[in-house]
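In the design runs reported in the main text, the only information available to the sequence generator was the tokenized backbone. The following block is the verbatim input for one such run; it is reproduced so that readers can re-run the procedure and compare outputs position by position.
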């Protein structure tokens, strides 16, 4: 669809977005100045319209989802991040660490249609290198065909430290044990200032990017994220996205960008903050699509955006809703009000109502099932009660 460029540029002149519609229409890369202007502008509707144009050019009417399970195998963590409500020390109320047998049993009894397990957790130094290999093997023994997307860069850093071996050798062994790809977490926001304030024990931005680079060069796909809405400035958000974009230019290893809206409830240092507003969550999706022009997919992770925002995001830059998800703990401990699981028909309804076509994908975006010809389901009592 052609953009009514003249009208959009006229409007952009008055909303601080001058020149951006023309660049988007011509497929030109946006500058850091453009990214900052997009964060500062009140015209989120225009950003959404432009991001939708780009999303449609890349993915047409398709909206992806997958059928997946989350296994947060331990909440023991020694990073003590000020934004995290999930972490515990061993012995604390609610602290747990799953054995490989428990990981096996959770997967053996999980949705038989699931094609992916998303396995992330805290880091605790008493866990041995062999533990990580064993939980991967346990997952694959329970479900030989499932794609294991596991371990953020923070966990990989810890695993490499425990293994006392070079990265490539550790990746060989993790792959051998069952690892198929990595998720995008642990990056938070790359600002050193915010890191010192809220997560000084966590790896630096440089280390996160260096590991991601090594992992991409090795041949694993990963995702990328930005946790926003804490104490970072808009300039720091732009810097974060710019670093992700530069790495992606070199490696093409990121499949999907997932902006993560900060959930303040129960967090050690930031429970006084409000959660980013629905409009801010949509802005983050749209900017992600427009600025990260080299990352194929943008995910509206419904667990964290909320269902209403996730649905709207499909028309403002996002092409993916993540999955059916079950047993997610990181966000629910931080007060997320979303359900802990969606059924396939719930996801179809969100997608179809937004004017898109549901396509079930696997982790690597190969099509599992295309629901192009499915009619919007007649509302039944159970699905009409979807919370927002
Ligand atoms: O790394 C922790 C963030 C991440 C809070 O790759 C918080 O497909 C908001 O990375 N409020 C883990 N965010 C989740 C994650 C993820 C999720 C879905 C899909 C994928 C993927 C990755 O969650 C952490 C951290 O950045 N986080 N606490 C909080 N209170």
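Verbatim output:
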């Amino acid at each position: 669809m052609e953009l009514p460029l003249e009208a959009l540029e006229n409007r952009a002149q008055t909303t601080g977005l001058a020149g951006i519609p023309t660049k988007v229409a011509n497929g030109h890369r946006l500058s850091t100045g453009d990214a900052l202007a997009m964060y500062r502008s009140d015209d989120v509707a225009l950003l959404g319209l432009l991001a939708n144009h780009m999303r449609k050019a890349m993915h047409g009417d398709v909206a992806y989802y997958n059928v997946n399970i989350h296994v947060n195998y331990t909440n023991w963590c020694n990073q003590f991040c000020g934004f995290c409500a999930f972490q515990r020390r061993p012995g604390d109320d609610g602290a747990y660490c799953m054995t490989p047998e428990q990981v096996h049993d959770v997967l053996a009894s999980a949705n038989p249609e699931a094609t992916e397990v998303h396995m992330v957790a805290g880091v605790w130094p008493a866990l041995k290198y062999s533990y990580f290999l064993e939980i991967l093997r346990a997952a694959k023994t329970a479900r030989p065909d499932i794609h294991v997307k596991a371990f953020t860069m923070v966990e990989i850093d810890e695993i490499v430290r425990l293994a006392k071996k070079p990265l490539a050798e550790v990746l060989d062994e993790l792959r051998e044990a069952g690892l198929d790809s990595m998720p995008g977490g642990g990056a938070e926001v790359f600002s050193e200032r915010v890191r010192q304030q809220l997560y000084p024990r966590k790896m630096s931005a440089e280390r996160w990017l260096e590991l991601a680079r090594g992992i991409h060069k090795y041949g694993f796909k990963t995702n990328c994220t930005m946790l926003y809405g804490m104490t970072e400035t808009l300039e720091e958000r732009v810097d974060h996205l710019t670093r992700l974009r530069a790495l992606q230019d070199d490696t093409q290893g990121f499949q999907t960008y997932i902006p993560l809206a900060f959930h303040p409830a129960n967090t050690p240092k930031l429970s006084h903050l409000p959660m980013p507003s629905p409009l801010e969550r949509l802005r983050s999706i749209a900017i992600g699509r427009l600025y990260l022009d080299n990352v194929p997919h943008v995910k509206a992770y419904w667990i964290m955006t909320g269902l209403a925002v996730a649905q709207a995001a499909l028309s403002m830059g996002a092409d993916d809703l993540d999955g059916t998800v079950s047993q997610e703990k990181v966000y629910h401990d931080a007060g997320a009000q979303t359900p802990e699981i969606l059924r396939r028909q719930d996801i179809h309804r969100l997608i179809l109502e937004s004017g898109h076509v549901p396509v079930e994908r696997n982790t690597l975006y190969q099509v599992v099932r295309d629901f192009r010809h499915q009619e919007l389901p007649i509302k039944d009592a159970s699905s009409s009660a979807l919370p927002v």
